[in-house]
From TrEMBL:
InterPro entries: ITPase-like_fam (IPR029001), Maf-like (IPR003697)
Cofactor(s) the protein requires to work: a divalent metal cation
Active site residues of this protein: 75 (proton acceptor)
EC top class named in words: hydrolase
Localization annotation: Cytoplasm
GO cellular component entries: cytoplasm
Main location: cytoplasm
Top-level taxonomy: Bacteria, Pseudomonadati, Pseudomonadota, Gammaproteobacteria, Oceanospirillales
Protein name according to UniProt: dTTP/UTP pyrophosphatase
Catalysis: reaction(s): dTTP + H2O = dTMP + diphosphate + H(+); UTP + H2O = UMP + diphosphate + H(+)
Species of origin: Marinomonas foliarum
E.C. numbers: 3.6.1.9
């Protein structure tokens, strides 16, 4: 059985393209970056800690453990000038982020972690995509905030939604920017014996 350690509806939808049946078990962790922690190291650490936290919760909730349970976790960060942009906490926060992204390129780093329940086997992956924004006006930023879309998005925008109107171009993995890199996820799942095409073709 596969367990998705995320409350993100976007990750749930994307994983549903690869696997028919899985459980969702979100895990709250401290997402504060460590001092002088590199963005890639931070994003991978977040995915690993989410997977580990989900496995602990699962063990607490299930007395009869299934040793074949696999946990999948992911984390996405928007990075500009080496600075990690998380989710905005206010309109002012959103303004600050989108002004920094306006008229230039930034990176979206998405990590993956798959592990078994006893953490005997842990596999990680990190995907970096480049996204270029057009110039964004303050009026547009305020209007965008009113749609509620940026409020739970890293970097204060969603490329799969209205935020796509800011995107001039991108290079890398679109699904990774949305929240779950499908190619890399399928590759890691295969290492754990889950083959996406086989899964989805079964009645």
């Amino acid at each position: 059985m596969l367990v998705l350690a995320s409350a993100s509806p976007r990750r749930k939808e994307l994983l549903g393209l690869l696997v028919k049946r899985f459980e969702v078990l979100p895990a709250d962790i401290d997402e504060t970056p460590k001092e002088q922690e590199e963005a890639k190291e931070y994003v991978v650490r977040m995915a690993v800690e989410k997977a580990h936290a989900a496995s602990r919760i699962y063990k607490q909730q299930n007395h009869h453990l299934d040793s074949s349970v696999i946990f999948l976790a992911s984390d996405t960060s928007v990075v500009v000038d080496g600075c990690i942009l998380g989710k905005p906490e206010s309109l002012e926060d959103s303004r600050s982020m989108l002004r920094r992204l306006s008229g230039r390129s930034h990176q979206v780093i998405t990590s993956l972690c798959l592990c078994n329940i006893n953490l005997e086997y842990v596999a990680t992956e990190c995907v970096v995509s480049d996204v270029s924004f057009r110039d964004i006006s303050d009026v547009e930023i305020d209007q965008y905030w009113k749609t509620n879309e940026p409020k739970d998005k890293a970097g204060s925008y969603g490329i799969q939604g209205l935020g796509s109107i800011f995107v001039r171009s991108m290079s890398g993995s679109y699904s990774a920017v949305v929240g779950l890199p499908l190619y890399e996820t399928a590759e890691l799942l295969a290492q754990f014996g889950i083959h996406s095409l086989e899964e989805m073709s079964h009645e």
